[in-house]
UniProtKB/TrEMBL annotation:
Domain of life: Bacteria
InterPro entries per the UniProt record, alphabetical: FApF
Keywords: Signal
Cleavable signal peptide: 1-23
Source organism (scientific name): Algibacter mikhailovii
Protein name: Transporter
């Protein structure tokens, strides 16, 4: 006979951590298999200093923009047949300030805006090595290679075409990717993981561009990227790792005229995480642009918490 009980449980990396600025990546321990029947929340704080717009996928060469964002991702893990699956929703309060220099060499200082940056809805499903496991089964599962199919649809945050600095993009971004994870250690208490996420982002038109654009219609070509992480548990509760990201593409056009702002950037950084309580974990990351064409530059500091809840049955 089974007794049903509720309890809180946390496993580092059991959810797909959201991104707030498209260029910053999901972060380490984001693409690992997790147990089904788990719900949770992942609030974060990011500080970005960059010459990209707050959404992180269009840059303005000589601009200097500071962005503070507070994204919160809600998620639920479940089984789709015998495969792991996950749904997510992220909303993204933010504020931004700084200086923008246009392509016409006009400089606007003291800019400030608050509201919401782009958020997303997402669906992830297992393709290879991703069984739908209960908490008990997951605890006994031997780490193995896994691959997921991932669809993420970004919706626009706050937008006003009369403003020079916007947090939202006034369009949709559709992202497809195949997150993968490779275990380098079978020791469940000291795991070593390589994670890799190749993806493509497609953008709808912005039919009401900001006045800074000085046009009637803005489009952006697809952006291709790959995000990679190597992490290792130094103790049972503490892990650390290195991050590497590369993105290319994403040039924009205004009324059919190319803007010569193709993104070609390599970024890297360091990350760490700690299990504070059985139901609560914390992560932190610092990242910089290592190399980029056309003067693209930026740095990022990120703090995150993960709260989880699961309902299980005990014999």
């Amino acid at each position: 006979m089974f007794k049903t009980r509720h309890f809180l449980v946390f496993t580092i990396g059991l959810l797909l951590i959201s991104i707030v600025a498209h260029s910053q990546g999901d972060g380490p321990r984001s693409y690992l298999l997790g147990p089904k029947g788990v719900i949770g929340a992942n609030p974060k704080y990011l500080n970005l200093n960059q010459n990209l717009v707050p959404a992180g996928n269009i840059y303005l060469t000589d601009s200097d923009i500071n962005v503070n964002v507070f994204p919160t991702t809600l998620f639920y893990n479940f089984g789709l047949g015998e495969r792991f699956a996950q749904v997510q929703f992220m909303f993204n309060p933010a504020n931004a300030s700084g200086t923008i220099v246009t392509d016409q060499d006009e400089t606007f200082t003291g800019l400030n805006n608050s509201g919401f940056s782009d958020g997303f809805m997402a669906f992830k499903v297992g393709l290879i090595g991703t069984p739908a496991l209960s908490i008990k089964e997951f605890a006994q599962h031997t780490p193995a290679y896994s691959m997921f199919g991932y669809l993420r649809v970004w919706y626009s945050g706050s937008y006003d075409a009369s403003k020079l600095l916007n947090l939202g993009t006034n369009r949709f971004t559709i992202e497809f990717g195949t997150p993968m994870s490779f275990p380098l250690s079978k020791n469940s208490k000291r795991p070593i993981w390589i994670e890799s996420y190749p993806y493509i982002q497609l953008y709808t038109k912005n039919t009401d561009p900001s006045i800074i654009v000085q046009g009637n219609e803005a489009i952006q070509y697809p952006l291709f990227g790959i995000e990679n992480h190597l992490t290792h548990n130094l103790t049972k509760k503490f892990w650390a790792g290195i991050d590497l990201r590369y993105a290319i593409g994403g040039e924009s056009e205004i009324d059919g005229q190319a803007q010569d702002n193709k993104i070609n950037v390599l970024g890297g950084g360091l990350s760490a995480g700690y299990q504070i309580l059985p139901f609560l974990g914390a992560t932190s990351s610092y990242g910089i642009v290592l190399a980029g064409d056309n003067g693209l530059d930026g740095n990022m500091f990120r703090l995150g918490l993960v709260f989880v809840y699961a309902k299980t049955e005990k014999n």
